[in-house]
Amino acid sequence: MLMLTDIIVSEVLHGADGTDIRCGVIGEIGTGWPITESEKKVLRATAQAQAQLGCPVIIHPGRDPAAPAEVVRILQEAGGDISKTVMSHLDRTIFDTNELLEFAKLGSYLEYDLFGTEMLTYPYNLEVDMPSDSQRVQVLAFLVKEGYEDKIVVAHDIHTKNRLTKYGGHGYSHILKNIVPKMLMRGISQHQVDKILIDNPKHWLTFK
């Protein structure tokens, strides 16, 4: 595991894949559910590298409500800094508001990053009812009301051609053009919007 930690540290300090292009974050570290031993090894190496570097980490959790908290536990036990860690894809993972608040208490950034993705059937977990963008905004408003405005980040997770405006998708302007007005309409202030879009990402991405 020390070797894997050294590789991660080197890619941040010196460059990745034989280049001098240095990584600005560790991740997106992917895990499934249940988390495999190999995935745990990577998470522990990630935590140890983060402890050395004070750098940001982003996690792709398994598709189960218990997955994000289990990842946090593994990272913490290995010395990771949860306050510098983003837990992505929460909009397809934790739906119960009480469970969400319990997870939020653990201190990671809470990422709602599937804006623009609305579907009847989520092929990776057929039991999930994928929320609409309006429902995502409602959850953001709930989290803000509960005092987590400093821990929310948002994104589109655009990774296929059909998501681009050229091919009929929402494109990269969707959050700014369509989601922000909805956030304001649902009681999130402009100051809080600026925190979510500007301040929180800046704080997360800044090395300690």
Salient structural properties:
208 residues; five-stranded parallel sheet; 2 domains; single chain; alpha/beta; globular; 5 strands; TIM Barrel
Which secondary structure elements does this structure contain, and how are they paired or packed?
Blueprint: H1 2-13, E1 26-30, H2 37-53, E2 57-60, H3 67-77, E3 85-87, H4 97-104, E4 109-112, H5 133-145, E5 152-154, H6 174-185, H7 190-205
Give a brief outline of the structure.
With 208 residues, this protein is α/β, with parallel strands linked by helices. Helices cover 43% and strands 9% of the residues.
Please tell me about this protein's structure.
- Strand 2, helix 3 and strand 3 form a beta-alpha-beta unit.
- 43% of the residues lie in helices and 9% in strands.
- Strands 1-2-3-4-5 form a five-stranded parallel β-sheet.
- The protein folds into two domains: 87 residues, no CATH class; 119 residues, Metal-dependent hydrolases (TIM Barrel, Alpha-Beta Barrel).
- The protein is built from seven helices and five strands, in the order αβαβαβαβαβαα.
- It has 208 residues and is an alpha/beta fold.
- The model has no long low-confidence stretch (mean pLDDT 96).
